[in-house]
Amino acid sequence: MRLAPQPSAQSLRLIILLILVMGVAPSPALTVGCPARCVCDDQLVVQCAGQHLTAFPTDLPLATRQLIISNNRIVELPPLQLNYLSDLVYLDCSNNSLTEISMSTFGNLGKLAYLDLSFNTLTRIEDRTFGPLSSLVMLRMTDNPGLSDIHSDAFAKNSALQVLDVSRNNLSVLNISSLIALPTLRSVGLSGNSWSCDCDNEDLCLWVHIEGQTVCRGPPNLQGQRLGELGLQLRSQCHQGLGSWDYLFFLAIGFVIFAAGTVSAWAIGVVMVLYERYVKKKSEQMDPDDESLPNLSANNSPSIRPLPDSHGKILA
């Protein structure tokens, strides 16, 4: 068996000297051990719940399979440290102070199957936030009071997703186009949101299962009714006739057509007048001048002398 070449002593000294000169310490994510105030076991589980942490724990073992950091005051999930944990399959970040999740947060967590972001202060979910999580099976995002916007393609890449829970947030509209396309999705929690039961949520009302707590918060005439019972009603209302915006649109189109017709008629009239004047002027230039014609009146007619006939008589 051929051994790999070993680094020389001179090479090691150069590396150590470079680190000392630049003041760079090895990344905490690369070190082996257990974070302070956390418990690590032989099953590659790191338990840091309820330790009053304000920052993501450092010194995590690279082979960590389960990480529980719930019930702390962590405000950010740093992508640089989190993505070193490429074998992570279970991540519980519930009951913290997370305000946003960047597009690079889960960039290297292709094995992650369970993710809990409940009881945080999230406000928006972008389109590629969960894109790298190709193995994600369960996603919980409940009880984020400020969460009012989830991008329509937020779950488009999560083909393994089976359970999605977005209950008790501040959602009023949810585009389900990407959810419908997920082949394994079997459960979606929607209760406790401020759903608007209008035409913007028509597809959602048709798609959801009837749940006792999934009710409308508006409009007032539908408040308290269950989403699943309004699907067909909204379908008939939203496609039955013209709405106020449709009438405004047609009114605007009519005004534009009327204005265009008026301007066109005016322009045609101006052109016709100018053309008529041009033709009249042209005809005047082509006619002979009356004063230049010879005067053939009796006073000015030329005298005609009588001519003699062949016998010398003068003809009258």
TrEMBL record:
Q: Cite the InterPro entries for this sequence.
A: KCNMA1_auxiliary, Leu-rich_rpt, Leu-rich_rpt_typical-subtyp, LRR_dom_sf, LRRNT
Skewed-composition ranges (Low complexity):
293-303
UniProt signal peptide: 1-29
**Keyword tags:** Cell membrane, Disulfide bond, Ion channel, Ion transport, Leucine-rich repeat, Membrane, Repeat, Signal, Transmembrane, Transmembrane helix, Transport
Region ranges (Disordered): 286-316
Location in the cell reads: Cell membrane
Domain called LRRNT: residue spans: 33-66
Q: Where are the transmembrane segments?
A: 247-275
Major location category of this protein? membrane
Checking PROSITE patterns in the record gives: LRR (PS51450), PROKAR_LIPOPROTEIN (PS51257)
Record SUPFAM superfamilies: L domain-like
Iron-sulfur: is it a keyword of this entry? no
Q: Does the keyword Transport apply?
A: yes
Protein's membrane topology? Single-pass membrane protein
GO MF term list: potassium channel activator activity; transmembrane transporter binding; voltage-gated potassium channel activity
Q: Gene3D superfamilies in the record, alphabetically?
A: Ribonuclease Inhibitor (3.80.10.10)
Gene Ontology CC terms: voltage-gated potassium channel complex
Q: What is this protein called?
A: Si:dkey-52j6.3
Species classification: Eukaryota, Metazoa, Chordata, Craniata, Vertebrata
